[in-house]
Amino acid sequence: MKIIFGIIISLLFITNAEASEKIEVTLSKCVDGDTAWFILDGEEIKTRFLAIDTPESTNEIEPFGKEASNYTCDLLTNANKIEIEYDENSDKLDKYDRHLVWVFVDDKLLQDLIIQQGLGQVDYIYGDYKYLTTLEASELIAKNNQVGMWQDTSYHTYYIIGGIVLIIIIIVCIFSKRIRKKVFRKAKSKAKKEIKKILN
């Protein structure tokens, strides 16, 4: 009985180790700050870097988007070794069929390097991910030291201005509706008075 129990424990340990092991890949194409194509076992796969979000630099250009893209692509292009790791507390694929992975360049966690440079933020957290604490600590340091996008007020105002514009649009819609009602009531009241005059 003890032998069987020991075998089961060993198998569980091996399974967990395999679930989070690093797999060496080759860069096929770098897309932007948090997306790249790799070749894994002869197959090209699109990956989304787990637990971070970098400013846009493809369809839409956001502040520090180009810097984030250039930084990531430089590291991946010049790396001697690239490895990916799936997180057992995350889905393997997202809704766009991109592989959700941790990425390592020359044994350094790429997500953490990006966060340290202030070129991305911790985001899209749906579980207790393996390196989350590391990323959160690096983000706090980057914010406190006002590194990268955390030093530029335009990055923050970019979203604040968008919010203000949205509020103004809502207010205009509400008030324009009230104004129309008020004008309609006045016109209706005036019409009633004119009809009374005619009848009298």
Give the tally of structural domains.
Answer: 2
Give the helix proportion (percent range).
40-55%
Please give the oligomerization state of what you see: single chain
Shape: elongated
- Estimated share of beta-strand residues: 15-25%
The CATH architecture of the largest domain can be given as Beta Barrel
Number of helices: 5
Compute the number of strand runs. Answer: 8
Structural descriptors:
5 helices, 50% helix, 200 residues, disordered N terminus, two-stranded antiparallel sheet, alpha+beta, five-stranded mixed β-barrel, OB fold (Dihydrolipoamide Acetyltransferase, E2P), 2 domains
Describe this structure in words.
By secondary structure, the chain is α+β, with helices and mostly antiparallel strands. It has 5 helices and 8 strands; from the N terminus they run αββββαβββαβαα. It has helices spanning 2-19, 65-78, 110-116, 132-144, 153-199; strands at 23-32, 35-40, 43-49, 52-53, 82-85, 99-105, 108-109, 121-122. The radius of gyration is 28 Å and the shape is elongated.
